[in-house]
Design a protein that fits this description.
By secondary structure, this protein is an alpha/beta fold. About 50% of the residues lie in helices and about 10% in strands. Strand 2, helix 6 and strand 3 form a beta-alpha-beta unit. Helix 2 packs antiparallel against helix 3 and helix 3 crosses helix 4. The mean pLDDT is about 95.
Length: about 240
């Protein structure tokens, strides 16, 4: 077997991020009686993603992002001053309750585990929230190691989060493949650190960063075929 260990991302790789975000936003905005139109929700998503891209490049810290997201968005769109950290804590409490798996996740994890792969998690997020969602989804026990950016003190693609991970992992980079949806976080992080990745491109995005994952798959059954063939059939 070419690889011994698979690292999985969580949001939009295992758990449907769009579904989670939609659930959490509606619970939060309904609780505060803030009207949430489809246009406002799209604007929120775009703004939030822009902050996460800044986090991944090191332009923002996790604490800065947490304080800015809702403080700035609510002020700009509703003309209300709110405690950004308090609202973020409330949002995360709702976020942690949503755990819809993407199609094919559990069957793939079961197959990979039976095939002898060490399954692990490396996620940009909070330790409790990510572990709790994995547990609610019924897949936490598939993973022998779960590491988040909160614990490591750094976010993907920063090399230091991979140092932190591999210091605790059973296998090293040469025996590891990263499976994730994020070009800038997962695929760039693995490429810069010098190990292989599979891009889970189920959102049909363009690879506009000139990155070179081992291969690209759009569904979990495609990934299972790679596992069955020991990654010998590469696009």
């Amino acid at each position: 077997m070419r690889f011994r260990q698979i690292i999985f991302d969580v949001d939009d790789t295992l758990i449907d991020f769009a579904d989670t975000e939609n659930f959490a936003l509606h619970r939060l905005f309904n609780a505060h009686h803030w009207p949430l139109t489809e246009d406002l929700q799209r604007r929120y998503h775009s703004y939030n993603q822009s902050l996460w891209r800044q986090l991944e490049t090191g332009a923002l810290t996790y604490d800065q992002l947490s304080e800015m997201v809702f403080h700035n968005f609510i002020k700009e769109n509703y003309h209300i001053n709110v405690d950004g950290l308090a609202i973020m804590d409330e949002y995360r409490s709702y976020f942690s309750q949503a755990y819809k798996l993407l199609p094919g996740v559990e069957d793939t994890l079961r197959f990979a585990k039976k095939s002898g792969y060490e399954l692990t998690i490396l996620s940009n997020g909070e330790a409790y929230m990510q572990r709790h969602r994995l547990e609610l989804a019924g897949i936490k026990n598939y993973f022998n190691l779960i590491i988040t950016s909160e614990e490591a003190g750094y976010s993907k693609p920063d090399a230091r989060i991979f140092d932190y991970f591999f210091d605790r992992a059973e296998y090293g980079p040469e025996e590891t493949v990263f499976f994730g949806d994020g070009l800038q976080s997962d695929i760039l992080g693995a490429e810069n650190y010098g190990f292989s990745s599979v891009w889970y491109n189920h959102r049909r995005r363009k690879n506009n960063m000139n990155l070179h994952p081992l291969c690209e798959v759009k569904t979990y059954p495609e990934f299972v075929k790679l596992l069955k063939n020991n990654f010998e059939r590469i696009n």
